[in-house]
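Long-time lurker, first post. I've been practising inverse folding by hand and with some scripts of my own, and I keep getting stuck on stretches where the structure tokens seem ambiguous. Below is the full token string for one chain I'm working on. Before anyone asks, I'm not after the true native sequence, just a reasonable design that respects the backbone. If someone could post their per-position residues I'd love to compare against what I wrote down in my notebook.
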């Protein structure tokens, strides 16, 4: 892994993704005590950063592999990302989704041309359904977060941040499956100047935090968090990157996530999903640590089910 690999990745996906805007807010700066830069991946194509990794992963396949299609399992955002990327690149996409996935996300997958297979809301059920499609159709499985080409695509978020603001001292990323924070850590390492990568994670699904403590991939017994995009666990490809390059992970409570999301809606005037608010919640929870620092916060997506969203 080197700078050139990341430069090549960014050049490869550039025609297919947005260089999303970076918002600031004097009021949120005052509340946090830090200078904050919000990277708005909620304005990315399909509404989340995952478009970057999906496009890069498909573009790295052979022509024969692309003709047979791609398959993934996802609670929503990567399902949409792979469906849209595949549609743009004229590749069949087969999407395994848990039966409790937000309605807005499953409807979007259908709109982007993805072929949905529903399964029980467990990792085992997802993997079994995806494996069956691979066996039957010869499609290539692309993991939403534990795939190096996906991680490299995700790294372009941090690259754009550091290109715009080379003086960043910290980049804070939400942590779910680990694909975004691993990519962010790579970009911070190769393009930042003493720039730390820090994770924000819901306390009720704190497997990444525990994994950092124990040195092995931990699992969650429950997945009841409002941050539905962060219910998955780390993988054997992204975890070593996280171990090596991520400084630490901050866990936040459900009410802290909701309050942070409410502030982002009210003060930045933008729609972000709960998973996006986790990184901001981590900063608000640890004001002393972030005080007087130049801190970027990745707002990972904006695909909200308005029928179920809660602000209290």
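-- Answer (accepted) --
I ran through it position by position. Result:
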């Amino acid at each position: 892994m080197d700078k050139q690999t990341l430069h090549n990745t960014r050049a490869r996906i550039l025609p297919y993704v947005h260089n999303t805007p970076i918002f600031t807010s004097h009021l949120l700066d005052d509340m946090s005590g830090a200078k904050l830069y919000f990277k708005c991946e909620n304005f990315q194509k399909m509404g989340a950063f995952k478009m970057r990794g999906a496009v890069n992963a498909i573009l790295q396949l052979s022509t024969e592999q692309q003709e047979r299609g791609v398959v993934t399992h996802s609670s929503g955002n990567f399902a949409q990302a792979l469906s849209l990327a595949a549609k743009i690149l004229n590749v069949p996409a087969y999407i395994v989704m848990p039966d409790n996935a937000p309605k807005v996300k499953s409807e979007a997958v259908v709109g982007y041309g993805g072929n949905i297979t529903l399964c029980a809301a467990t990792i085992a059920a997802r993997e079994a359904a995806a494996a069956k499609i691979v066996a039957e159709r010869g499609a290539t499985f692309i993991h939403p977060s534990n795939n190096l080409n996906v991680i490299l695509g995700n790294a372009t978020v941090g690259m754009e941040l550091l290109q715009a603001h080379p003086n960043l001292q910290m980049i804070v990323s939400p942590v779910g499956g680990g694909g975004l924070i691993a990519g962010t850590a790579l970009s911070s390492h190769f393009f930042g100047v003493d720039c730390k990568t820090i994770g924000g994670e819901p306390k009720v699904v704190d497997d990444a935090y525990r994994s950092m403590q124990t040195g092995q991939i931990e699992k969650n017994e429950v997945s009841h968090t409002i941050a539905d995009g962060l219910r998955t666990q780390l993988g054997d490809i992204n975890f070593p990157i996280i171990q090596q390059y991520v400084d630490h992970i901050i866990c936040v409570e459900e009410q802290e996530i909701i309050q942070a999301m409410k502030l982002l809606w009210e003060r930045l005037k933008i729609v972000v999903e709960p998973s996006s608010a986790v990184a901001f919640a981590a900063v608000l929870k640890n004001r002393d640590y972030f005080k007087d620092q130049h801190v970027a916060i990745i707002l990972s997506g904006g695909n909200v089910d308005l029928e179920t969203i809660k602000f209290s």
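A couple of notes from the structure itself: The longest helix spans residues 148-164. DSSP finds 14 helices and ten strands in the chain. Happy to go over any region you disagree with.
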